[in-house]
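FYI - complex with guanosine-5'-diphosphate, inputs then prediction.
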Amino acid sequence: MKVDVILGLQWGDEGKGKIVDVLTPKYDAISRFQGGPNAGHTLEINDFKQVLHTIPSGIFHENKINLIGNGVVLDPMVFKKEIESIKKHNIDLTKNLYISKKAHLILPTHKLLDAASEAAKGETKIGSTLKGIGPTYKDKIGRDGLRVGDLVENFEEKYKTRTQAHKEMLEKFFNFDYKQMLEDCEKEWFEGIEALKAFKFVDSEHMVNELINDEKSVLAEGAQGTLLDIDFGSYPFVTSSNTICAGACTGLGIAPQKIGSVFGIFKAYCTRVGMGPFPTELFDETGQKLRDSGNEYGSTTGRPRRCGWLDLVALKYSIMINGVTELFMMKGDVLDDFDTIKVCVGYEIDGEVVDKFPFELNDDVKPVYVELPGWKTDLTKLTSEDEFPEELNNYINFIEDETGLPITIASVGPNRAQTILLERK
Ligand code: GDP
Ligand code: IMO
Ligand code: MG
């Protein structure tokens, strides 16, 4: 069978974790293909809430393979904490969790380099999650990285050589006082390494292709979002991996023709955490209202998320880059109490309206809006599309017409149960 991919179409935090958990019963295996603990994927199941950073969001279903692919960067310290919090729910992780030997390790010095680099940038900082993502991918591309498969032999020696180079960079290039910070976290990091060794390290590209050949179904779980992609996002305010559909091919070792459905997930409005352009951002009480009703605070860092209206120029760009086949609309309930809702359908740049995502999103880009009536209805209790207010149907129809794609899921609350499958009769 082909591999289906689910990925974010905005600046991350679209609700990927929730939807992967909802879709897992249909699949044999769930696999993360890029990113690392910069991701925070929230699952709400009955009365408990879990944020996952490294482990795929299928982990709460029995007998499903959960694979951390080669494209992921893994911090053993974060990983250990995560497995400990999941174990509390009586989940036997050693049975179903597999880790690619080719996944790169985030070293403590990568995190210090992330902090040093951000501090050196000052006002032009990226607003990184400080999880060591950029420096780890830099080492990967620079052919200096350490991988999970390296843990098997002479690891201490490899670790010393690598961190020595990092220490010199911290001292000589960044003039960064790292010694105490490194001492504080190195012991915990090595405890994480020991915890990691209890898991199955696999040649994940063989594993995934065998699953495909055995007619098993695989769902690839993206992290971040298309507008944070290293190539196509709002560079340089992006993450350091390919968050797009092509990233599933390189991050798992699957051929492009093995990709099946591409599920594009978006919020009914828009958010961003960290620095960088955001044409539809709202700085007024409407933005604050979105933040309050959507509880828009980062799942990884707790930072308030910047909020604004849905941006169809950006959404259509993301759809194009990823070859999206179906859309999932999240957090419609956050708009329950708005008289009118704005949607950006074009950008005005130097007096001209364009509908193509430009090279640079600077302050000259002004959103052009259409205004649609709000539904003024509590969506969180709804269980079927038959109960949808007319204004919500109009909102969905409008997005479907603009994008030319069906919206097949509407999420109306954070809980697993608050998910409505649409047939759009
Ligand atoms: P991810 O990174 O894409 O997995 O998304 P996050 O977990 O970082 O952020 C999404 C947030 O919205 C989480 O707190 C979810 O529990 C919550 N959420 C997901 N879907 C819905 C929804 O339909 N309505 C509301 N109100 N919250 C949602
Ligand atoms: P999920 O998977 C939202 C943002 C950071 C920063 C930029 C670079 O939960 O959707 P990095 O630490 O990757 O070097 O930070 O990217 N960022 C995210 N924003 N959701 C995420 O992941 C993010 N991962 C990184 O805020 O602006
Ligand atoms: Mg998140």
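The mean pLDDT is 96. Residues 12-13, 39-41, 299 surround magnesium ion (ligand 3) (CB under 6 Å).
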